[in-house]
Amino acid sequence: MKRLLILLSILLSFSLQSQQITPLNEKPYLDSLQNIVKTSSPDASKSNAYFILSNYYRNIDSLLSKKYLESGKAFIKGNPLLSAKYDYYKAQYYLDRNKEKAGISYQQAIKALSKIKNEESDLLQASAWYSYGVTQKDKEGYPFLVKTILEKSIPLAKKYENSRNLGFLYTQFAVILTYNAELKKSEEYNKKALKILEKRFPNSSELFFTYLNFANNYCYQAKGDEAKKFLDKAENLINPYPESSINAFYYYSKTLYYITRQKNSEALPVIEKGIFYTKKFNQSLLAQMFYFNKYDILRKLKRYDEAKNVLEDILTEKSLALDLRNRKTIYKQLSTLNEEMGNSKEALAWEQKYSKLNDSLNTESVKLEINKIESKFNAAEKERKIATLNAEKNQKDLEVNKKNSYLWGLSLILLLLISLLIFLFIIFRKNKKISIQRINEIKQKEELSLTKAILDGEERERERIARDLHDGLGGMLAGVKINFSTWSANHLDAEKDKEFYKILRQLDNSVSELRHVARNLMPESLLNFGLETAINDLCEFYKRKDLEIDFQAINIEKNLPLNIQLNIYRIVQELLANAIKHAEAANILLQCSQSGKNFFITIEDNGKGFENNAEQKTKSMGLRNLKNRVDYLKGNMEISSDNQGTTINIELNIDGE
Questions:
Q1: Model-level pTM?
Q2: 326-356 pLDDT, tens digit each
Q3: What secondary structure letter does DSSP report for 618?
Q4: Sign of torsion over alpha carbons 55, 56, 57, 60
Q5: What is the distance between the alpha carbons of residues 330 and 458, in angstroms, rounded to a whole number?
């Protein structure tokens, strides 16, 4: 049951984003919407139909969803409610793509809807507040989401006691309570939803999901019989519609039920049915949840290699791993699994990742398992060091015995004195050469250590400044902006006080610029998603209308040490900055490739070029920092430039320090 409860945070992560509540019988519903947009229906009806179609297709076909959204906008024609709906459905479109954009659009919709006093506006505003809380969950935490639901969403929906929107909000709040292990309170809110939905909307999707939430809740309490009752009710609702995308959710709950009953062999084919539906309707996050259950079952069956592959595939696909709490859970599972397989070093590496992420989320301290794994690893390391020291001692003893033999022979055989002196002279010369070599090696190591200290200090200072800007000053400015926005909405008029709103936009732009500076100092995408994604984001950042950057990544491994990834990222960042700032190029080709322990960087531009020995003459700090990082990674750099452009080839050794 512990492993079953591990899936709870992942289930919540999906449930909070899964707001596409469509009818169980999807096809007639979609056909009716298509009929509205194709016939001579009123503009308001067409606009609504287009918006609902956009929401339905937002995760199935993003291009079609965007097309429907803009088609609906064309029929607004000054209608304030339709204009507010456009902002709401625009936010829905961005919800799983860009939470920052989604949050802005939700706030625009809320502001517009608050001026319209009717039932439709109030209920849509309640949904917008709920969805806005979801967009802020990762940044503000679950308390903010709970407060938003209880103080904003539910009070608006409770004006209309028997609305399906209120039932939906009760169900979603029950999911949050389940996540926080408040299983009894979760039952209470599920019952509130059931009271509304069974009586007023007996064949609705909202009721279907309430049944599934009940079943899941009882699974987490290990009450299989109770879970089965609600699972059967959900099955009765969905059975007539085998083509519905909602079937995937039913099979997910059925999987949890079989896991609760410890019927692992029966759960695997159910998982495959669920995966079939998720692939058919492009439900990538739910698919990853099925794969996580598959991993859990394979592990119970001691099919460790298969289980490990499934878990690593989940990290690679990234749908679940975008949520930090999910990623923490996956790290922990990989650590435990590798320990069970006897891979103590790999288990330690995953446990350290888990511990670091766990600390950053201000959760519980590092578990005792890491000490056990680390002690096993350290014991093996100590045994290896002891064996090495013993071998060195034996070698030194042997050398001492040899020298004693030479001295004893010298005292006995005087005739060999000259030969022996010559021999000792040769030994002296040889030792002198070795000493010089050792001095040079020590000098190189000291230079390397100094370079490393400088680079590490620079990165730590970047990280500190970035954190202070983003979390400190950025948070304060964002708070000031939000307070101004809230105050102005209640006290100012957008038309009369244009100067104030102009200043407010300038403040908003300043916050964005400050966060951009913080991200540039310490790239979050490098820490979260690795080198290839970070470089791709960097290229996208530098692109302009008059500048095209073609980035090609070849065989870049994801398990490079972080300090090496960071140094490569800084090298690429400096190369791009120089090409853009000095070369005045219109096209840049950047290629990064890896072959074993060698990493290659090639950058070509069609700029004005410079003298081939300019890098030796210039005192540019940028080129000096670039050369330091290349030397630190024991690399070589070649620069070729003329009036047709510049080509720089860099080869790095990433064998470790």
A1: 0.50
A2: 778 888 888 888 888 888 888 888 888 888 8
A3: -
A4: positive
A5: 32
